[in-house]
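Running this now, will post back.
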Amino acid sequence: MICGTGIDLVEVQRIEKILKRWGERFTGRVYSESEIEYCRKRSNPAIHYAARFAAKEAFLKSIGVRDGVRLKDIEVLNNQSGKPDLKLHNKAKVTLKDNDIHSVHLSISHTDRYATAVVILERKVPS
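Update: finished.
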């Protein structure tokens, strides 16, 4: 049963400006080491940072709670086939457990100008 949805849209140029101004102070607060490594390997890292930022914000919207959940607790990783997945840590992980959420679905898309993400949360249907 779907119990939460979230969507976010990020302007890539906004992330580019933040990266130029704050650099590692920004990335270190928002992204995991794996995310930073992934984005840095791309020809235009800002697009990938923006997509991951959108995914983190979409997740927060889908759970409807921010209390204690840090952006860095929401990690976007790609599986072997390249599909993006969310790996949750600390308060983000606890929040899912507390709300009996068993599946998190993520879709990300981007262009040179925009990055967007959608998150859908599922709870088991009571028997």
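The chain has one domain: 2-123. More later if anyone needs it.
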